Amino acid sequence: MKVLFHTLLFLVLAVLAGSWGSTGHRIINGNASLSFDPQMSDFNTWTSFLSSHASDADYRKNDDPSESPKHYIDIDRYYSFLVLGRIPQTLDSVVTLYGSSVVYDNGILPYATIATVELLQRCFEDGNLDAAQVAAADLGHYVGDGHMPLHITSNYNGQNTGNDGIHSRYESSMISVYSDQIIYEGDSVHFIPDVTEYIFSYIYHNYSYIDSVLMADNYAKNLTGSTNSSAYKAALWEKTGGFTIKLMKNASHSLAELIYTAWVNAGSPDLGTFSIDDFYNSRKESIEGIYPAAPGSFVVKLNLPENVSLKLSVFDLSGHEVSVIENSSKSKGKHELLWTSPQLSKGMYVLVLKTGKTIETRKFLNIL
What's the mean pLDDT in 77-90? Predict the structure, then answer.
C-alpha cells in the first residue's frame, strides 16, 4: 500500500511540476557541469542533455510501477537508523534483515543511486556513450532526490505533523518562484573511493533538514494564514532559502563527482575520440555487460576472443543456480543474448560465464 500511495503521490507531483519541481531538477543537473575540471572538458557537451532529461525518471512512473521506490527512502522507519544513525548499506544485506517487501515499501533511493553509478561506469566501459548520457541524467535525478529532505522520511508530505501538502509547496511551488536565486559557480571535483559510503553519507546528513522545513511551513502558515499565496511562499523561502540553495548546490556537486568517479573507474575514456570498435577489440573480458531490457528481461553482451563452447548462468548470492541463459557453442565475436526471467526476485545476482579455458563473473542488481 505504501508503494502504491507513493506512486500516486509522485504521479500527482509530476503532473503539477515534478519532483524538486522540474525546474529544480533541471537546475541541479544543468549546474553539475560547472564543476567539471579541464580533464572533463568533453563532458561539457552533455550539459544540455542532462538538464533537459533531468525529470525523465519521474515521467517513467506512468508506465513502470517499479520506478517510484527509487525516488525515496523512509529511512526513519528503520530502527537501526533511529538508534545508530545508519542502516545496512547494501541492498542484499538490508533485504536479508528486513525482507524485500519491507525494503521496497520503504523505498530504495540510495541503492538505486548506487546501481545507476555502476550502470554509468559500465556504459563508459562498453563505449555506449548514448546510454551513458541517459544514465547520467537519471543519476542526477536520484542524487537530487537524495538532497531533498522530504524524500528521505516517512513524514514525506507532513501528514504526521499537521503539515499536509508541504512536499509540493516546498519542492515545487516555492522553487518555481525563487529559482533565479539559486546561483552556483561550481567547485573542484574529487574521486570517490567508496561510492556507497558517499551516497549514504549525504542522505544521513540531509535528513537533518526535515524539521527545518516543517518549522518553516508552520511559520509561513501562521504569518500569512494561507498555504498558496505569494506571501506564504515568500515566508517559506525566508526560512528555508539559505539551506535549500546549499542542498541544491551540493546535489549538483555530488552529481559531478559521481560522474567523474564512474568515468575514472572505467579508465577515463576520451569521449571526443572514442572508437567503440577499437575499444571492443581491445577488451580482454568476454562479458561486456548485462542491461535491463524490460521488467523481467535482460540483454547480455559478450565479445568472445575465439570459437568456444560456453555455459552462461545466473546465480544468487547463496550460490544457487537460478537460470541457464545459454549452453552451446558460439563463434568468435560479439553476441547479444536476451534473457527473460519474469520470476526473478529483486536483489543482487552473479552472472557466470564458463568456457573450456576460463570462468568470468559479473555482479548485477535486479531492481525492476
Answer: 96
Strands 321-330 and 333-340 come out as unpaired
Question: What is the CATH topology of the domain spanning 283-366?
Answer: Immunoglobulin-like (2.60.40)
Choose the most confident range, by mean pLDDT, from 35-49, 89-103, 146-160: 146-160
Take residue 250 and report the three cell numbers written for it: 551540493
User: What is the band of 21 on the pLDDT scale with cuts at 50, 70, 90?
Assistant: low
Q: Which element (helix H / strand E) includes 200?
A: helix 195-206
Output the nine-digit C-alpha cell for 65. Answer: 510501477
Spell out the SS3 assignment of 74-99: CHHHCHHHHHHCCCCCCHHHHHHHHC
pLDDT computed for residue 272 by the predictor: 65
If residue 166 lies in a helix (H) or strand (E), which one and from where to where? helix 166-168
d(CA 119, CA 94): 21
Instruction: Give the three-class secondary structure for 13.
Output: helix
Q: Where are the domains of the chain?
A: 2-265, 283-366
Phi–psi pair at 70, nearest 5 degrees: -75, -10
| DSSP-derived secondary structure for 214-227 | HHHHHHHHHHHS-S
Q: In what order do the strands lie in the sheet with 333-340?
A: 287-294, 297-304, 333-340
- Phi, psi values for residue 365, rounded to 5°: -110, 125
Is pLDDT above 60 for 180?
yes
Helix (H) or strand (E) run with residue 263 in it: helix 230-265
Tell me if residue 339 falls in helix, strand or coil: strand
2-265 architecture in CATH?
Answer: Orthogonal Bundle (1.10)
